[in-house]
Design a protein that fits this description.
By secondary structure, the chain is α/β, with parallel strands linked by helices. About 45% of the residues lie in helices and about 15% in strands. The chain is globular.
Length: about 400
């Protein structure tokens, strides 16, 4: 189904897409490009697939009109696994002959196919996967472009909050983290920083999907941790940790996490558990342009996105790709070159100047003046509150 027809039929598809079933779009002969989208429609994290697809459904008509293009999208399920991603990318490249790949949204499947995509010389757009090794790929000619923050950049920004003084003294830092690549990469970076700054770092891991963290919370409490960082891929795991912190009466003056908390956290926790908990994100979720994206999502689907930053990142990725396509046409290498040198990217009224550069496929850097500190109010819904930039937070004391 062509994008234009897809939007017209959106209301009829909502129930089916919410259930993980229903017809998928297929390419049409008159399109300017066909984009292959890979994600976990089935498996442990279908919210990544859903919000990537919904982001495309919202952004594509805007981008098509802006650049006078017609785009088609072909979706493939990777089931959240590297093996699934391998099968999906082979189908998209060999059978569907797509012009670009979006996703996978999680790092392990994305890493599995990165070199395959690079060898195919197709632009590789990443809207969620954060592993540092994903960008660049393809040697001298980088074909990967990420509109999500990378893990190292996020950790660098977050660490400036986590390692700042508490009551004028060096903190005792605690890290509760997922026992996966995402969590372990952060721990390695924080451990090194702790050594450099002379700050004690206490580590506690938890398996993804575990239902109890009381022992880990007690150890962090008993170690005197007063600045804790929760590094998990899912909001449900963060809910387990903050619940059990409350159970053991571990309430440090600083509690921080990432915007991954937005997926399911508030549905699974209580206001008392998120009190004082803050997260860092490159975009201010209360800004006019971000709010416009969220309002469009609510209007179309009747609910909040589970991963609002993924939806937003789809807008920026599609804008960058469309500009590359407009300049490069059917030549994938020329499209790549054009993406790398786009003058600006626009998302609902906000412009990002020179987002990429030769050999640089990263949309965001670690400038703390451009990152924001947010949290939740004390209502049952936990509305998001913006406290200012990270730079402001560090200056006044986080």
């Amino acid at each position: 189904m062509h994008t234009r027809r897809m939007v017209a039929a959106l209301a009829a598809m909502l129930l089916a897409s919410a259930c993980g079933s229903g017809p998928e779009p297929s390419p049409s002969a008159d399109s300017d490009a066909t984009i292959g989208v890979i994600g976990p429609k089935t498996g442990p994290a279908p919210q990544f697939y859903q919000d990537t697809q919904r982001g495309i459904e919202l952004a594509a008509p805007i981008i098509e009109k802006r650049y006078g293009l017609e785009l088609d999208f072909v979706y493939a399920d990777d089931a959240g696994s590297p093996e699934g991603a391998s099968s999906a990318v082979q189908k998209l490249l060999n059978e569907d002959d797509v012009d670009a790949i979006f996703g996978p949204p999680t790092s392990a499947p994305a890493l599995q196919i990165a070199e395959v995509v690079a060898r195919s010389r197709r632009p590789y757009l990443l809207v969620s996967a954060s592993n540092a090794d994903l960008v660049p790929t393809g040697g001298d000619k980088n074909f990967a472009f990420r509109t999500q923050w990378s893990g190292p950049v996020l950790n660098e920004v977050n660490s400036q909050v986590v390692f700042s003084d508490v009551d004028g003294k060096k903190p005792v830092v605690g890290i509760a983290y997922a026992a996966d690549a995402f969590g372990q990469a952060a721990v390695a970076q924080y451990r090194k920083l702790g050594d450099e700054l002379g700050v004690k770092v206490v580590e506690e891991s938890m398996q993804t999907g575990a239902t109890d963290f009381t022992a880990g919370a007690k150890r962090l409490r008993d170690a005197g941790v007063n600045s804790v960082f929760l590094n998990f891929t899912s909001g449900s795991d963060i809910a387990t940790v903050t619940r059990d912190m409350k159970v053991v009466r571990f309430d440090p003056p600083r509690k921080t996490t990432t915007s991954n908390i937005l997926a399911n956290y508030r549905e699974l926790s209580k206001p008392a558990e998120w009190e004082g908990l803050k997260f860092v994100e490159r975009e201010d979720l209360n800004s006019p342009n971000f709010t416009k994206v969220l309002d469009a999502y609510r209007s179309a689907y009747g609910e909040e996105p589970q991963l609002p930053t993924v939806v937003y990142n789809v807008f920026s990725a599609l804008d960058a790709y469309a500009q590359g396509l407009k300049a490069g046409g059917a030549d994938h290498g020329a499209v790549r070159d054009a993406i790398e040198s786009v003058a600006s990217v626009e998302v609902e009224g906000t412009t990002y100047e020179k987002p990429f550069a030769p050999g640089d496929g990263e949309f965001y850097d670690a400038d703390v003046a451009n990152w924001h500190v947010m949290g939740f109010d004390d209502t049952p819904e936990g509305d998001i509150v913006t406290f200012g930039t990270v730079a402001d937070c560090i200056k006044r004391g986080c």
